Amino acid sequence: MSDNSRTIYPANPTGQSDASNVDHALTVTSGKKRLLLASLFTNFFVLLALYCGVISVLLPKHIAQIDPANKANNLAIVMTSALLFTIFAQPIAGALSDRCRSTWGRRSPWIVGVALIGGPAIFGISMMTTVAGIAVFWLMAAVSLNCMNGPLATVVADRFLPENRGIASGFVGAGFTAGGTVGIIVAGYLAWNLQLGYLVFGLAIAACCLAFVLLNREPSTRSLAVEPFKWGRFFKSFWVSPRQYPDFGWAFFGRFAMFLGYQGVVTYQLYILQDYIGLSVAQSNHDIGTISVITLATLLFSGLVSGYLSDKLQRRKIFVFASSVLMAIGLIIPLFMPTLTGMYLYAAVLGLGYGVYTSIDMALMTQVLPGGGKQAGKDMGILTIATVLPQSFSPILSAWLLAEFNNDYSSLFIAAIIFVFASSFFVLTIKSVK
């Protein structure tokens, strides 16, 4: 998108727009770039605030009020049933957005359309008095918001030149992390009135997505050429051959390994404070908040700085490797200093490393898309699977490690170090990105 955001894609002599015209019309410059950066930060901030606030606070409390005796099992059923559907929502929505032809462009109809479904669905949960009802509305909300998330993430590939994607990725990563922390805090304050809590998050995501589309107008795609739709070709397109596109495959496995290592420890932080550090339940509940704030502060700093430096130097892989080294150092600290001070140092150093990673990760992903990003929505959606699957596998892996090593939480730190380092070497194998 140029500074004239209402430009129609210029047509070639056949009357249809070509790819080069599309890329030129979408690219943002000057003031429009700053507005889009701020908008991306805000939307991902609100999206993650919603996810973390609802999943960590509102849903657990709501389910516990309905059936206190079976709250853990019921929460697991609600979350697992949604995961089975949402894991493929982003790739499918991304692929369909690639084909979208409208006055408002390819991504905008999906960003605002499904948000206007997901927002009310979030509020609809508050009306439910059964676990089954909660599961249905949460499924509707989760699928809708994932269908929005895919096209929204693709904006980085669509609208920023490759040399500007580091800072764009940094803003997205900063929004993700800050939103997750703030969402839990806000949900905690609103938990006294569940209906109000659901309403605030539902309205916030719908309003932000509508504002995003209006402020960052895409050019029309009505004249853009599109291949005839065939079911077989559509589903076959979701297989990206690692042999044909090795860099895409390395990027996928690198992201998978990174999130598997990171989530394996972060998910069990509360239990680590209680059973490894030796804090009381009350003290651990307090100090996990302090750890989250420390991680957030260092992550925001390193994320924005490294995104700027990556663009300035036009280097991606060295930053990913540096992030894995920093994260490994952070994970080593509690092994030699199993104290609260050690956990504070762990949080600070881990945040620095993870901030670098989240800043560069999306920028790198956009530069390894097959075919130069012709199907960016679909391919970016596929890469999100490498984020979602570890969130499901890491608790299983961590539980197995604890069982095998007699509930020794040091095994979680050692496994995380291995996966984090493995991630960096997957990325270093990529040849098409410096």
TrEMBL record:
InterPro entries from the UniProt entry: MFS (IPR011701), MFS_dom (IPR020846), MFS_trans_sf (IPR036259)
The record's listing under PROSITE patterns reads: MFS
Q: Where is the Major facilitator superfamily (MFS) profile domain?
A: 37-434
Question: Which parts of the chain span the membrane according to its record?
Answer: 35-59, 75-96, 108-128, 134-156, 168-190, 196-215, 248-268, 288-309, 318-337, 343-360, 381-403, 409-430
The record's annotation in SUPFAM superfamilies points to:
MFS general substrate transporter (SSF103473)
* Keywords (A to Z) from UniProt: Membrane, Transmembrane, Transmembrane helix
Give the protein's recorded name.
MFS transporter
